Amino acid sequence: MQCDDITWNILRKGQCAFKAWTKPTLFCRNEMNLTGLCNRASCPLANSQYATVREENGVCYLYMKVIERSHYPRRLWEKIKLSKDMNKALEQISDNLLHWSEYVRHKCKARLIRIHQYLIRMRRMALKGTQKKIIPVARKVERREKRREEKALVAAKLDKAIESELLSRLRQGTYGDIYNFRQEAFEHMLDENETAVEREEELEVEDDEVNRDIYVFCLFRKRKKDVGRVQYVADLESSDEEDVDDIEDTAGGHWTPPDTDSEDDDWQRPQEAPKRRRPHVEIEYEDESELRSKIKA
């Protein structure tokens, strides 16, 4: 069975999760607390018969707790909706809290009046539209951007002034004549150009000499490798005669298949170097008698 005095002695001397330690007075963070103070009469945990008023979405409700429902934690609080009319809401509190203490009944009415006051103030503020969104401003960034704008404006004005001055000089004919520079500076510039051209020519000559040396060295190495190498080369005169015979056979329309049978099939010839390709030669034969008859005709 619940005993309110024992519960309060434990909470007052011991640790309470809803207790807020402050120097003048102790406050209570429990949402069901009637006054927000941590004392015996206002503690919702140490009073088996308790009542309070709460606001939810602009609507006021009366919450009541009795000892008969202490063994039902889910049904511990009874919720009653109060009327929007202040007089009717006060009558509802008086009727429902008839057997409660005068302290609880008075504090519930005072809490209801206070809730009605801040609800009215909220409605007025919403109608007037006086709520403003406060946006923090970075002072350093603002000053830096302002300085940059000022510098850019000064530079733009200077460029504009220079442009206008040059245009005015051009209209007046200030730049119409050719300027005579010093002869020494002109000759110095020519000498530098000639020196650069000579340097480029020397570099080209050096590159040619290097390339020639590389070519000679590669040719020498190639000849050195070919020393002592055995190559088999066909007779040039016989090959020329064979080419002429082949051309004559082709012109006469006679063709003989190549001899595929070789007596030396078993003998493996040494590997020959690839022959160089010769240019194609065409030989035509004309009869002198026919040529003379054509000339006479």
Automatic annotation (TrEMBL):
Main location: nucleus
Ranges where the record places region Disordered: 237-297
Localization in the cell: Nucleus
InterPro entries documented for this protein: Mak16 (IPR006958), Ribosomal_eL28/Mak16 (IPR029004)
Keywords: Nucleus
Biased composition range(s): Acidic residues: 237-249
One of the Pfam families matching this protein, by short name: Mak16
GO cellular component: nucleolus; preribosome, large subunit precursor
Chain ranges of the Ribosomal eL28/Mak16 domain: 7-118
A GO biological process held by the record: maturation of LSU-rRNA
Protein family: Belongs to the MAK16 family.
PANTHER family linked to this entry: MAINTENANCE OF KILLER 16 MAK16 PROTEIN-RELATED, PROTEIN MAK16 HOMOLOG
Name by which UniProt lists this protein: Protein MAK16 homolog
Species whose genome carries this gene: Ancylostoma duodenale
